[in-house]
Amino acid sequence: MPYEEENIQQFSATSSSTSHSFLRSRIGLVIEARETAAAITSIADAEAAGVEQIWMTQSPPTLDTLTLFAAAATRTTHIRMGTSIVPTYPRHPLILAQQALTVSDIAPGRLRLGVGPSHRPTIEGVYGLQHTAPLAHLSEYVAVLRAALWEGRVNYHGNYFNVHATLPRTSRVPILISALREGAFRLAGEISDGAISWLCPVPYLLDKALPALRAGAEASKRSAPPLVAHVLVALSEDENAAQDAARKRIQYYTALPFYARMFADAGLPVAPDGTGLDALARSLVVYGNEATVVQQLTELLAQGLDELLVLLVPVQDASRELAQLARLIGGMQ
């Protein structure tokens, strides 16, 4: 079942609109917190600053995003909340559908559900589950999840899931999937309501990811869903400090096979001894004063990216800089 047509048109990469109000609706802020009260306050503060979309990740050491969103919904009125992402292997799609339906009841029209297979070191090394055929598994997962949420009933028999269930009502929560390499972007075009990238250089997104996304959509005879591009932002005019913070943020990912192959596909491989890390960091981080950052974010959207998923890279004071970034995004009107 395709992404709702009006939403595709709203976030179309072919749009030439550069008005600030439109731009603000296309920029989401990543909220990171290990304490529930602090996370809820950050979401409420982001809404007060004018931010229209926040995103939160889900991993073993983090809070449960959907539970947190349900609580945050009672402290906010309109900000959209998205998961980027909920790993698929540890959580059955029917369970996730029940959670999403509950959040949707509390905050109608405000949830965007990003899911993905995560990575073998996490799924096998932490959860002790098999991480096999991630794209095939993800395709079946989304089929079950969409049937449960959008149709209210599931009768699915595949290689990974055999599910027969009925939910009390429906909710057309947008279902997005994570994507790093071309196969995943093509799958996103075929089955999802959006592709969420992570640490993908912009030229790679424009030259390889977007064509794959659109090819997948065309093959499935549907409109291309939006590409949500992950962008690192450092609010500092000190280039060395910004780059140093970015290197520390991304170094872990260079050892993960999926990311290492994507970086190589993007022409920015990182060797085991760290060679290439500086060039990769330069390609990923937006830095400067507020005016410079606004200009660079605006230019990224003008190049053809549908939405931005902005992650702060703190340089001096994380709390102060997050509030500053929220005001910056919220002020783009």
Give a short synopsis of this structure.
With 333 residues, the chain is α/β, with parallel strands linked by helices. It has helices at 5-10, 20-25, 36-49, 65-73, 93-106, 120-123, 134-151, 182-191, 202-219, 239-250, 257-265, 277-284, 290-302, 318-330, and strands spanning 27-30, 53-56, 80-83, 86-87, 111-116, 153-157, 162-166, 175-178, 195-196, 227-234, 285-287, 307-312. It is globular, with a radius of gyration of 19 Å.
- Give the strand tally: 12
Structural category is: alpha/beta
Q: What name goes with the CATH superfamily?
A: Luciferase-like domain
Please outline the major beta sheet. 8 strands, parallel, barrel
- Under the CATH scheme, which architecture would be assigned? Alpha-Beta Barrel
Give the overall pLDDT as a whole number. 93
- The CA-CA distance between the termini, in Å, is 33 Å
Shape: globular
Order of strands, widest sheet: 1-2-3-5-8-9-10-12
Q: Please report which band the strand proportion falls in: under 5%, 5-15%, 15-25%, 25-35%, 35-45% or over 45%.
A: 15-25%
Low-confidence runs: 1-20
Question: Fraction of residues in helices?
Answer: 40-55%
Q: What is the CATH fold-level name? A: TIM Barrel
Order of helices and strands: HHEHEHEEHEHHEEEHEHEHHHEHEH
**Rg of Cα set:** 19 Å
The number of helical elements comes to 14
Broad CATH class: Alpha Beta
